[in-house]
């Protein structure tokens, strides 16, 4: 049987396979490896609709029997996923997404963040979305599925990274991007919808950390992080267990209420608690923005520098520092003619920005052109005894040295 199946002589493999399957179903896992191949080939080969149904049903039955006899050896969720895959392959455009939804839902429910195959998350959310689009009364179920699965994928990514499996981490990142894109385009996840969905659920769950995290992540994912509901969930969560998500919610609330000192405290705490370095970097940039608006340029620069410590490729941090320097150009030297020297250190930061972060190159180049036009001119430099190429120190709160360039 195994030899015939390996050679893809499925007609000749059928009889011996059936004998083993019916009489010794627990004798070898190979029964369940080659069985689906045999019946899928027979399905494709026959034009008879009744036969096709028979072969389809048999293929599905084989997976159920495999779970019965080898469910301890192989993850049940994995077997169910491959059952769903073969069903989709054979049914093609006639696939019943409700069937796929049930099987993959059970599979993912079993395995959560350890799902294998990895793309089962995608197929499950396609099935969930398909049902919502055909029946809007299933919106709540789709929302619940979305946030649960995104959480599982995030955990799967973390698992892959912990195992130094960057290939799987990258693939899961693409899986997640597809799921998020489907959610955003579905119309189910706008701020109004999510606020209405969670409005009467936060208070009864104010002691449920898992639920409060779900609310914060859900609202944040659609840019709904400045609502009373978001703030309430953040406050309850923070009381239970200070976390980056809760702290950022309280920071946003303080910012809305113009309580800047409290906002600064929570942004700093959020960055310290955040395990995602890119997010922590973003939080420090928000902190830098507050200091900048308060005209406290030294603290704004320090926050931006800390942002680059979390994410060395944060070009926006270097751009902000450059803009802070440029804003101080007329206040550093007692001689107004030397203002052009301050723009030198601003351009230094812009060059650093585009070097570490190509995504900000256009913005950095635009500012470089503008600030370079404000460099000291050669005539003024001659009169002040300043030469191109020499080192000059920019005093005051900037406190940096740079190389003189003239226009």
Describe it for me?
- The structure is a single chain.
- With 407 residues, the protein is an all-alpha fold.
- It has a domain of 84 residues.
- The protein is built from 20 helices and two strands.
- A hairpin with a 5-residue loop joins strand 1 and strand 2.
List keywords for this structure.
two-stranded antiparallel ribbon; mainly alpha; 2 strands
- The geometry reads as elongated
**How much strand content do the residues show?**
under 5%
Number of strands: 2
Pairing-aware structural class of the strands and helices?
Answer: mainly alpha
Number of contiguous helices = 20
Distance between the termini: 84 Å
Query: Main beta sheet, described?
Result: 2 strands, antiparallel
What is the helical fraction, as a range of percent?
Answer: over 70%
Strand order of the largest sheet: 1-2
Radius of gyration: 30 Å
- Output mean pLDDT: 91
Low-confidence stretches: none
The SSE string, one letter per element, is HHHHHHHHHHHHHHHHHHHHEE
């Amino acid at each position: 049987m195994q030899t015939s199946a390996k050679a893809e002589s499925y007609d000749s493999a059928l009889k011996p396979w059936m004998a083993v399957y019916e009489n010794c179903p627990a004798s070898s896992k190979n029964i369940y490896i080659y069985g689906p191949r045999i019946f899928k080939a027979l399905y494709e080969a026959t034009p008879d609709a009744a036969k096709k149904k028979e072969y389809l049903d048999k293929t599905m039955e084989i997976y159920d029997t495999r779970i019965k006899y080898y469910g301890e050896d192989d993850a049940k969720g994995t077997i169910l996923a491959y059952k769903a895959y073969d069903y989709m392959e054979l049914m093609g455009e006639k696939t019943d997404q409700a069937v796929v939804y049930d099987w993959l839902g059970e599979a993912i429910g079993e395995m959560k963040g350890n799902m294998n195959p990895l793309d089962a998350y995608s197929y499950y959310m396609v099935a969930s979305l398909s049902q919502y689009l055909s029946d809007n009364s299933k919106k709540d179920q789709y929302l619940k599925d979305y946030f649960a699965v995104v959480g599982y994928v995030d955990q799967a990514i973390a698992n892959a990274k912990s195992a130094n499996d960057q290939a799987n981490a990258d693939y899961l990142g693409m899986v997640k991007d597809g799921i998020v894109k489907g959610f955003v385009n579905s119309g189910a996840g706008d701020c109004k919808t999510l606020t209405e969905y969670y409005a009467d659920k936060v208070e009864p769950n104010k002691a449920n950390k898992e639920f409060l995290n779900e609310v914060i992540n859900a609202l944040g994912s659609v840019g709904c992080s400045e609502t009373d509901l978001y703030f309430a969930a953040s406050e309850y969560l923070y009381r239970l267990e200070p976390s980056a998500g809760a702290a950022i919610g309280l920071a946003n609330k303080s910012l809305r209420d113009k309580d800047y000192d409290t906002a600064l405290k929570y942004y700093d705490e959020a960055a310290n608690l955040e395990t995602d370095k890119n997010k922590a970097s973003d939080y420090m940039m928000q902190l830098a923005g507050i200091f900048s608006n308060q005209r406290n340029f030294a603290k704004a620069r320090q926050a931006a520098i800390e942002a680059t410590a979390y994410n060395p490729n944060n070009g926006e941090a270097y751009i902000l520092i450059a803009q802070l320097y440029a804003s101080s150009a007329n206040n550093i030297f007692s001689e107004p003619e030397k203002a052009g020297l301050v723009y030198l250190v601003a351009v230094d930061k812009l060059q650093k920005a585009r070097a570490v972060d190509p995504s900000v190159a256009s913005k950095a180049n635009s500012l470089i052109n503008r600030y370079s036009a404000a460099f000291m001119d050669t005539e003024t430099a001659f009169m002040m005894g300043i030469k191109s190429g020499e080192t000059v120190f920019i005093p005051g709160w900037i406190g940096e040295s740079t190389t003189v360039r003239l226009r």
